[in-house]
Amino acid sequence: MKKIAICIPTLNEAANIVHTLSAIDEGLHEYFNQYDCTIVNCDSGSTDDTVQMFLREETKTKKISIFTRKKGKG
């Protein structure tokens, strides 16, 4: 089976992550449901609730969160 991974680079995006995640999840489910899809959050040390909000939001697509202290988005 073919695989698709969508990466969301983040740094303090708590105000935007749920909408972004939901839009990606719906698009993958609607147009690419025949593939093994994963949404990856690559967070660069957010000090807000970005990572927690990403992990709490229910999705049809599996999710992975990667957290690093390197500066910059992703």
List the defining traits of the structure above.
3 strands; single chain; 30% strand; 74 residues; 2 helices; alpha/beta
Structure description:
The protein contains two helices and three strands; from the N terminus they run βαβαβ. By secondary structure, it is α/β, with parallel strands linked by helices. A three-stranded parallel β-sheet has the order 1-2-3, covered by helices on one side. Helix 1 (17-31) links the parallel strand 1 (3-10) and strand 2 (36-43). The chain is globular and about 35 Å long. The protein starts with a strand and ends in a 7-residue tail after the last strand.
Helix/strand-derived class?
alpha/beta
> Overall mean pLDDT score?
94
Radius of gyration: 12 Å
Helix content: 25-40%
Runs with pLDDT <50, length 5+? Answer: none
Strand content: 25-35%
Query: What's the number of extended β-strand segments?
Result: 3
The geometry reads as globular
Q: What string, H for helix and E for strand, traces the elements in order?
A: EHEHE
Cα end-to-end separation: 27 Å
